[in-house]
Fold:
Amino acid sequence: MTSALEFSVDLYAVFDANNKCSDDELKRIYQKLILKYHPDKIDRDLPKHEKDKYLDRFIEIDKAWKILGHAEKRKEYDAKCQENAVSRKWPMNSEIDLDEMDYNEADGYFRYKTQQHLMISINELHYTPSTFKKKTLFNSTIN
Structure:
């Protein structure tokens, strides 16, 4: 069984779609593309390298559909994509200069400005004695 974790390409991009597409919309796009790139539909007079491009595209479409065409596999793929997106956006276990963060004395939290706010309390800050300005985020809470 092919796992969603094996794909390094955006499966929705294969269909020129996004994860907001309904199952029916995705199916229509798939059917249109699979007919266009099907090996039996390729013009026999095309040069071999062009036929190979069509075949590669057909295989790519088929592999993407094996995930996105099944509700449970699509759900798993979407969850993994979301997890990957969040892990790229959040500076977990990385050093951030305190000057890049806003501190709210009333609630005792630093806020790091991202698309969503990362909040971390003073107790959750870990620092190396050699430099007080650099802090490593650990056990952070996302708000």
In short: The chain has a mean pLDDT of 76. The beta strands are 95-97, 101-104, 109-112, 118-121, 125-128, 131-137, 141-142. Residues 48-68 form the longest helix (21 residues).
